Every structure is written in structure tokens, then in C-alpha cells.
Amino acid sequence: MIYTITLNPALDHYVELDTLRVDDANRMRAECLYAGGKGIDVSRALHRLGGASIALGFIGGHNGALLTELLRREGITPHFTPIAQETRRDIIVNVRGARRQTMLNARGPLVSRREWRAFLEHLAALELRDAYVVMGGSLPRGLPPEAYRDIIRLVQRRGALAVLDADGRSLREGLRARPFAIKPNVNELRRLTHRRLSSEGALLRTAQALHRDGVEVVLVSRGGKGLMAVHGGGALSAMPPRVAVKSTVGAGDSCVAGFVLRHAGGKPFEDGVRYATAAGTAATLSPGNELCRREDVERIAPRVRLKELSLL
Fold it and tell me: What gap in Å lies between CA 266 and CA 217, rounded to an integer?
């Protein structure tokens, strides 16, 4: 079983404009609502790739009810913990002509201590042995900065493999619990290490250090430069083919979904890295937050170039 955790989900309102004129009226050319948040996007991508998952997290108010209904329409099983305050709504503005995308992220709800305890009790009651628990994204107000650390310890003590995709202090605290896998991008690693990491060698040394500190799999997303992957058997660089990018929203989450799906299926590590890279690249072919399409992933995967990296 694969569980995803989104502690601060969002109802994403995606709009497209031909141009954006400040201090003037702007006519939208297209708009759509999506269930959003890192864990939720992983669930959505898994479903598109033929996998199944259960989406966990906090949900509240009218936005939360609509988000839950959108997930059900996509064939995803929601199993959220209710909260008193309203789930946030984010706005994504895509300007077609300029190929610019702006995200307006709402502050989000305040989660009480009682609601946080209810979530942990709910999580502990699940069947977690041999499961994958994927978590990531921002923390809502009211949760301790150690929230991911506590979740990782809880699920891994019960036999699950924890996968973390977070930033800043959430990532730093989560690493203390030694999750099975992490998927930072280059900027997130820079913030974690306070280093420039301007070369492949510097990135590789950082990923290796995280592996030595107890993280079994370190996946570093590098945008158009693909994926760097370090595990017990060595290190790989995965370079995708060039594609016409429409949106980068959810590319990292599609990458995580691709890797977890293949790893859970018992595929070799190299296959998981290739599929993860193809899934992340495929997500950029779709507008807004539509994520990857399975047919695109299957077409791109054979064109991903793998290279073994010399351990430093």
C-alpha cells in the first residue's frame, strides 16, 4: 500500500491569461480547479501511472469538501482528518505569451493540538507494515516544526518506508528520523547546506553525505538537467530528452510517484530512476497542474540517458 500525506493541502485555482496588465482588468482565457499539495499530487500522479494510494492529511470547510470531491472524481481514495478551519485556496497565474507562471499561496488554516493528535492516532491505526508513506510540502500553522520527524519515526517503527519531499527546517528536522528516501531539488539542498553547490561534484558529495547519515535513497531533481540518484549501490545521473515545457507545477511530485511506484513493484533501482525522470519530464508537457500522462511517460522513459557517477 502507498499512503500520501499532505498536511497543508490546497484547492488550486489555475488561470491562463494572454497578458497580465497591472492596475487594469484582465480577461481569463482558461481556468480550472485542482486538488493540490505535494502528497496529493503524488497520489494523482500514481493514479495516472496505474498505481493506487490513499491520501491522508487535514481537510476543512467548503474548500476542503470540494478538494475531496475532486479527488474522488479522479479515482483517488481520500482519508483525511477533519479540522475546524478552512482548507486554503492557491491561485496559479499562467501568462501564455510570456511563458511566465506566478503562484499566489494562501496562508492556510491553523491546526489545533487536538487535531494534530487525532491525525497521529489515525495514522498509527493504519496497516503500515511494508507500506510506503510519502509526505511533503509546507506545514500548516499550529504544527510543530518537527512534524515530519515525528511522522517518519511513527511509520518506520511500524514497518513502513518513509519518503520525504520538504524544504527548510521541515527537511532538516525530518532528516533526523532518517527517512528511507528524500527528493530535494538543488535550491532546497542549497538552503539545507548553506552552500552554492554549483557543480555536479558538489551535488554528488552532498547527496553522498546524506546517504551516509542514514537516508537510503537520495534523489536530487535538477530541472532540465534531470535527476541525480544516490543509494547503497552507487550513484546515477539521469538525463531526460528536451521537451516543450508548458508547466513545471507538479513535476517533482510526478518524479516521486514514478520512483515509488517502480520501487514498490520490485523493479531495479536503475529502472526506478529512469521512470522517475520520465514522469517528472512528462508532467511539464501538460498545462497547469495536470501532472504526467502515462502514455507520455512510457514514450519518454526509453529516451532517458543513465550514467554511472564515480563516488567521491
Answer: 15
Whole-number Å distance between alpha carbons of 258 and 39: 13
Catalytic-role residue among 12, 41, 253, 296: 253
d(CA 246, CA 265) in angstroms, rounded, equals 30
**Which residue ranges make up each domain of the chain?**
2-7+38-87+110-309
Beta-bridge mates of residue 217? 181
- Tell me if residue 90 is catalytic: no
DSSP one-letter code for 40: H
User: Which residues, 6+ apart, have CB-to-CB distance to 34 below 8 Å?
Assistant: 11, 12, 14, 70, 288, 289, 290
- Return the C-alpha torsion angle 36, 88, 175, 306, nearest 10: 20
| CATH 1.10.3720.10 matches 2-7+38-87+110-309 | no
Q: Full-prediction pTM beyond 0.70?
A: yes
57-108 pLDDT, tens digit each: 999 999 999 999 999 999 999 999 999 999 999 998 988 877 677 889 999 9
The burial of 241, by beta-carbon neighbours within 10 Å (0-12 exposed, 13-18 middle, 19 or more buried), is given as: middle
CA Rg, the chain, in Å? 19
